[in-house]
Specification:
single chain, alpha+beta, 14-stranded mixed β-sheet, about 45% strand, globular
Length: about 425
């Protein structure tokens, strides 16, 4: 009888120990989940204990730099006491997977504890733009339907930027400028679907006749990722350069981020809603736009080369070559073109705007725009190789998460 009671008590003790341990294991993803939300990340999902690996999805609208955001998530994850061997982070943009980072949890902790160098950890980790395959595995290890907490849907961001137009070199007025305050609303509507509306409010203008408040951009844009290496974006509405219409961009990576092909096609007409044109006889027409671009990235130096050929705006057939690179968050590049209209060359620079971390202000967020771009053409008002802003930011957003760029940039944020 005593032996039976002892066995019974021992069985109860084993069951209780297992339940407490299992509860602790189940609590680990929940605690990590809450920490990520507390730090301002959105579209957060942390896999349950049914998964063999710890899988985390998140979207960054709180840090200006994607490298900064990824370093923060890695720090939070590595400092958490989890029993998973492998950590898989999936970066989302408008709910769509665009980057995956896979790392051994013990090595991540060893790096964060100063036991191994950043280079040793980075060499063991894997970063890839082929994130769709990892994201599709989530439903297989989820105990219920996968819901993203802190969803970005219907939660607008209000970036406020400064627009500039200028002309240098006229003898009567050697410096002519136009500055506009440009408040914008960016509203995610569904997975990959977003609306953008931007207005231009004149601050100073001795450049042209656009001295009135007017819309600068009004678009509805859908982004699709049908395969790991294929990105498609379709946009319609009011574009830049006094255009309206429909535009589609398709980008495919042939070898990681090293070599890619981009095809752009659009049809646009003229609208006076966004301003008064310089060359009315040319601009007030309907045009087709179609170009093919080949991009090569020299990863060692973050150097990007693009060769673009086809029909630009204003029925302008020809070739444009652009070379640019990152210096941290600063981008600098040079370009040249030879088209039916003319030949020209110039440079551009894109500067990050402070702060580097935005305030988590709830459902509505007003903040400065992330960057201030400046472009210079030797012939300032020529029409050669012109394009127009469409609301499609596929190239720029992907370039901020190229694995070779991120792995270098992240180190300074730890």
């Amino acid at each position: 009888m005593i032996k039976m009671s002892a066995r019974f008590l021992l069985t109860l003790l084993v069951i209780a120990t297992f339940c407490v341990f299992n509860k602790s294991v189940n609590a680990q993803p929940a605690q990590l989940h809450q920490q990520l939300i507390f730090h301002g990340f959105e579209n957060v999902y942390v896999s349950s204990s049914l998964c063999d690996d710890l899988v985390i999805t998140f979207e960054n609208r709180i840090y200006r730099s994607q490298a900064n955001a990824l370093a923060r998530v890695l720090s939070i994850t590595g400092q958490s006491k989890t029993n998973y061997r492998t950590v898989k982070l999936i970066v989302l943009q408008n709910e769509q997977p665009v980057l995956a980072l896979i790392t051994d949890h013990d090595k991540l902790q060893a790096f964060l504890n100063g036991e191994i160098s950043y280079q040793s950890w980075a060499h063991s980790a894997t970063l890839t733009l082929n994130a769709r395959q990892y994201h599709n595995q989530l439903d297989l290890c989820s105990s219920s339907e996968m819901d993203l907490d802190e969803s970005t849907r219907y939660r607008p961001v209000f970036p406020v930027g400064l627009g500039m137009r200028y002309q240098l070199g006229n003898y009567d007025e050697p410096y002519r400028f136009a500055f506009d305050l440009e408040p914008e609303i960016s509203l995610p509507l569904a997975r990959g679907l977003s609306a953008n509306l931007r207005y231009a409010i004149p601050l100073y203008n001795n450049f042209d006749e656009n001295r009135h408040v007017r819309p600068a951009l009004a678009t509805l844009t859908q982004t699709l990722i049908p395969e790991d290496d294929i990105f498609i974006a379709i946009s319609g509405g009011i574009f830049g350069r006094n255009r309206y219409g429909v535009h589609t961009a398709l980008k495919t990576f042939l070898y990681e981020e090293v070599f890619s092909i981009t095809f752009d096609v659009g049809r646009t007409g003229f609208t006076s809603l966004t301003g008064r044109p310089f060359f009315s006889t040319i601009e007030e027409r309907t045009y087709n736009f179609y170009t093919l671009s080949a991009d090569y990235r020299w990863r060692r130096y973050d150097l990007n080369t693009r060769v673009q050929f086809g029909r630009f705006l204003f029925a302008d057939d020809g070739l444009k070559v652009e070379i640019h690179r990152h210096f941290g968050e600063v981008e600098f590049g040079v370009f040249g073109m030879n088209t039916r209209i003319d030949s020209n060359f110039g440079f551009f620079i894109s500067l990050p705007i402070n702060p580097s971390r935005y305030r988590n202000a709830g459902p509505v967020r007003v903040r400065p725009t992330q960057r201030f771009p400046v472009s210079y053409r030797y012939r300032g008002n020529d029409l050669s190789a012109r394009s127009y802003e469409t609301g499609i930011r596929l190239d720029h957003s992907l370039m901020q998460i190229y694995p070779s760029y991120l792995i270098k940039e992240m180190e300074k944020y730890f």
